[in-house]
Amino acid sequence: MIRSRWLFSITALLGMLTLQAAWSQNASERQVLERAAKSLGGLERINGVKNITLVGYGQYVYQFGGGNIGPEVNAPMKYQAANDMRRVYDLGNNRFLQQERRNFLFPFAAVFGHSYQQVNLFLDGDVAFDINREGKKQRIPGWSEGVLQHDGVHMRRMWMMNNPVVAVRAALAKGAKLSNVRSEDKSKVVDIQIAEGDRMSMAFSDQSGLPTWIRWNNPHDNLGEITYTTYFSGFVPYGGLMLPLGYVTKTDWRNIDYLKVYVDDYIIDGEIPDLVAPPEVRSADVPASRVLRPLEVESIAKGIWRINTGTIVFEFKDHLTLFELGGSRHQAKAVIEKARSLVPGKPVTEVIVSHAHFDHVAGIRQAIAEGLTVISRRNNEIIFQDMASHRAKEFPDDQDRNQRPLKFVPVDERLRLSDNTMSVDIYWARANIHMAEAIFAYVPAAKVMVEGDIATAAVDYQFWADNYMDNIEYYKLDVETLAPVHMQTMKQAEVLEMVKGGVQRARERCAAELAKGNYFPGCPVVSKRF
């Protein structure tokens, strides 16, 4: 009898596995989504829920992983806190609120980075708008490629779809299109175009039917395009729904954990704030996604100009050399054209890049696409190659279309660029705690120094104050004028006065935080000079 029961159990188990395997091989896209709906609480419950509020906290990686102390893949990441987090999903009205307080968890030179500034990002159908500090509601562009976070209608809708209940409900709604069901790593993957036209892919566990991840793409200044994949973990019951307690959003570039969200609570069908776009916002024109800054040029010395976006131009006998191409890829294209116009007939052939932080290299793909040689600290070739080779198939830029290889000239301790009309010395910015692989330029004839983030990261705080004069004295330079990337041109006395004030303000902030029992990053401020 025992043997018979054992054989019956084995037969039943094999039958169940066979049925599951058959389902796994033959299930249609809609069957996969309907099974997911059942696993999440049932289609009727999913369609009946009015709203969901997520309460929690999280962390973003700084500059998508492009703002680290060094360019190596394994360099430690810097993070931005996202505290007091709320995600409000108004499913009945197709509205969404992304609310959090952001604060950098490392020494940042500007006050706003350490302010726990509240962010209120709304989406009402196809209308995305913000509420600023003064309480004014402002419509925002459809696309925004910021160096810290991407934004716009598409990104807000994708963040809304990051809730698996919301995503499955949208995928099964009228107007959605499902396609290309396939098997990947013990999951079923389905491509989805929701009714609004946004495209994404979702994976569902073969075993449980629950969603395991959601994936989508967005343009990216530094990489051409980036693929986000949000993984769900720890499903637990809330109000008749199964919802995850953990979200990790990874990027396809270097497999970085871009955003981690930790859930403290879900509120189902509770009171929610007013998410309606007011008439004046809804009727307003959609701001342009790509607004180029009008370009102005300042003559620094003979053969040296500063473009107001932070690019410095050096004129040699038969070519022009740029220092830095930040801002955005679109701005970089305009800057290159502006530089060419300064000396008609002379080509722009190379760009000196101070360091590899993403706010300083947003135009590097454009430079490579136009055939410019990149000059930078030797180890930066690692990250520049990763950036140049990254594909942008859904949102192609000039580099993806041209697929030009990186042409790179390394700098170790010093490199001189010189002909009989111009000499530019490039030096390693030794012992800078903000950027280990940084360089700066010096023109001996004009006594002009050009730098990014050594003395001029921001006016507010100076956490690496001595590095500017340490390098000038080490290399025995005679600096009269500083042409920085982030600030206006200054005389040497003005630079030192600014740095001194930044040290004082940083020390005052450190003392104020310590008095509250907070051990602030960057404190105490280390300076032997100020």
Automatic annotation (TrEMBL):
<keyword id="KW-0732">Signal</keyword>
<dbReference type="InterPro" id="IPR036866">
    <property type="entry name" value="RibonucZ/Hydroxyglut_hydro"/>
</dbReference>
<dbReference type="GO" id="GO:0016787">
    <property type="term" value="F:hydrolase activity"/>
</dbReference>
<dbReference type="InterPro" id="IPR050855">
    <property type="entry name" value="NDM-1-like"/>
</dbReference>
<protein>
    <submittedName>
        <fullName>Glyoxylase-like metal-dependent hydrolase (Beta-lactamase superfamily II)</fullName>
    </submittedName>
</protein>
<keyword id="KW-0378">Hydrolase</keyword>
<feature type="signal peptide">
    <location>
        <begin position="1"/>
        <end position="21"/>
    </location>
</feature>
<feature type="domain" description="Metallo-beta-lactamase">
    <location>
        <begin position="313"/>
        <end position="366"/>
    </location>
</feature>
<dbReference type="InterPro" id="IPR001279">
    <property type="entry name" value="Metallo-B-lactamas"/>
</dbReference>
<dbReference type="Pfam" id="PF00753">
    <property type="entry name" value="Lactamase_B"/>
</dbReference>
